[in-house]
Amino acid sequence: MNLIEAYNLSISNSLTGELIVENLSFHIKRHTCLGIVGESGSGKSMSMKAILGLLPSSLKTTGCVRFGDIEMIAAKQETLRKIRSKHICLILQDAMTAFDPLSTMGEQIIETFCENMNYTSCEAKKVTLEVLNKMMIHDPLLIMQSYPHQLSGGMLQRCMIGLAMALKPEIIIADEPTTGLDSINQRNVLAEFKRLREEGMTLIFISHDLGVVRYLADDVLVMRHGQCIEYGEAAKVFTNPDQPYSKYLVDTRKSLTKVFGELINKGAATSC
Ligand SMILES: Nc1ncnc2c1ncn2[C@@H]1O[C@H](COP(=O)(O)OP(=O)(O)OP(=O)(O)O)[C@@H](O)[C@H]1O
């Protein structure tokens, strides 16, 4: 069963007439992961924001995006707000923008849990501590008393990912969620996403890292210049892509891995 079905999603700038995304169509089956890859500026983030009604008013969205009985493009902001808080969680690249700079992390996370999960504040505090521990955040009590600007980008990112996971939405859209994390935290956060996948979470995962997308995704959508270049099963797209651009992306990733491996081995050889 498809949880989201998008048909001919297009985004244009009504001030300049520029077409940012053109006729994008895809669907996401329940309990699967759709990976979205493509170069910077290809329209990956804008497409997801358009679905959730998060684009500025200067950008016009057309097409049809179905989430159950709801047509998201024509839906009222109030409906979209409910969907965003209960059904579809968006994890942004820039975690700083996701938190209120005037409240402590603890106040914000506890309030979100109380509002969306009907927890008492005592239960919400307990779950918050569990979430922060799971995200490998040391001294969670201190973090709860801190304001967003007092935390590193990586810490904020882990708080946002943990919060989204604990809200148990129907779909998580993760837009470059490991950007800004060091490699140990990247690995741990990816393991959490993998665990979520195994538990049946439906996921849209946007990443420049094809290795990560291959690790998590069932299907993959390759974008370039606002258009879908290729869309299909991840195993097929990664091993036998139809389009030269997809092949170019896969080959570039492979050669980077090879160069990295050679450099590391060379370093090891000279340091012995
Ligand atoms: N507020 C805006 N108004 C007009 N155009 C915008 C706005 N925000 C982004 N764009 C343009 O939309 C295009 C797509 O941007 P988008 O952020 O979706 O790319 P992306 O594929 O997610 O890139 P990245 O991988 O770097 O995050 C870009 O050309 C960008 O300049």
From TrEMBL:
What CDD domains does UniProt report for this protein, alphabetically?
Answer: ABC_NikE_OppD_transporters
Q: Which GO terms describe its cellular component?
A: plasma membrane
Keywords associated with the record: ATP-binding, Cell inner membrane, Cell membrane, Membrane, Nucleotide-binding, Translocase, Transport
Q: Give a GO molecular function annotation for the protein.
A: ATP binding
**Subcellular compartments:** Cell membrane
**Pfam families, per the entry:** ABC_tran
ABC transporter domain: which residues? Answer: 4-250
Q: Which family does it belong to?
A: Belongs to the ABC transporter superfamily.
What name goes with this protein? Answer: Nickel transport system ATP-binding protein
Q: Source species, please? A: Propionispira arboris
